[in-house]
Amino acid sequence: MKRIPLWLRVLFRLGLAVLLFWSFMQLGRFMSGATSEPYYEEEITQEKTIESQDTKAQKESEKEITPKEKNIPIEEKPKVIEKQDSAIDSTHILSQKNVYMAKKMDYLLRTFKPAHAFYLMVDAKTNEIIAWGESKDQVVQASPDYLSRSTFPAASLIKTVTLAAALESKQYSLNTKIPLIGNPHTLYKSQIKQSKNYKGETVTLEDAYAKSYNPPMALVGYQVGASRLRKAAKQLGFNQNFSHNAPNRSDFSPPDTGYGLAEAASGFTGETTLSPLLAAAQIRSILYGLPLEIPHAENLAPYAPRKALALPVSKFSENTYYGLREAMVRSITNGTAKKNISTRYMAKKIYNELQIGGKTGTVDGLSPAGRYEWFAGFARFKNDPKNGIILIVMQAHYNTENATRSQPATQVSAMLINYWARFLKSQSEAK
Known about the structure:
This protein has about 425 residues and is of the alpha+beta class. It has 13 helices and ten strands. It has helices at about 5-30, 55-65, 65-70, 90-95, 100-110, 160-170, 205-210, 215-235, 260-265, 275-290, 320-335, 350-355, 410-430, and strands at about 115-125, 130-135, 140, 175-180, 200-205, 295, 310, 355-365, 370-380, 385-395. The N and C termini lie far apart (about 90 Å). The model is unreliable at about 25-55 and about 55-85 (pLDDT under 50).
């Protein structure tokens, strides 16, 4: 048997070494989660379908967990707040009703660096603003300019109007089966054309809301009609001018028919606008079954009223308020917020002690430009329902190819709820 030439053996060993080195490099990239694929965001255009809003944001959040996220612990007990940097003006923080939560909001804004954001916490019982935080162009602000501003797209938060109108019509209950035509996270014209003998897939109205499905909510909007939608929107403070312009007017103007009505009813549009302050008022109204009342703060004029501002609008029926609360809780337990508002970012004991409900929303906006994410909801102790908060997290990240995305609004919300609950428990234990 002929001996293999030396040069061939050397070449073989060199090739093997290169192959092994390449394999180890790929394994390292896999273990670290690195990828060469750029992150792209799609623009929303009429009748162009995107994998929208809440569910797309949820999928993206699963892909884009940064190392920073891993460094934020779930506290068993509130720790001493991080010392404020000497360069940071903390005057606006120390002047807030709940300084602990204001500092936590400031900390999360500086850690996660959303392009634009506004965090708002309201005492559910008194309707007083207890903490807020804001960032513009990734810079934390000392004044709440975004609190009453209503240029932000409401996105799927408007599904609350559609659900309220449906329940008020008495034609629907939470268990009513709604056709689910095509991809639940898109909205083509073909998806809102229901045949008389439709025998396809269906979803309950409650789950259509909780999972933020567009075609079913659009069909419901068609069925109840633009008039009922406008009435429900008015009862939730849309299209209202407030004294001292606090908050600014939030607009909901669905056309009487056509694709535009479907967009408006499902939140698949950037034209419906909402301010964080009005969003908080809506959640509190639903939580307690009360007429709309704008949250207040003694020292936040002109951004918020000094005293609670009641609106001359009628209430929904008790059945409607009950249905809205149940659907919001469903969003947490089996909907778009399930992944992040969970024991993933909350202490298990705290999570089990609380009732949490809310609505998510995601869509592109123009003022300022970016991809917006919302969480508007409530949290209260099961054994003490009067002890609760209204929480609004609104944030946007730059909608460009290489933009860095902040942590999802639902993750931020979970962490803030956890901080709040631990703070109250520590206060109670100290007494």
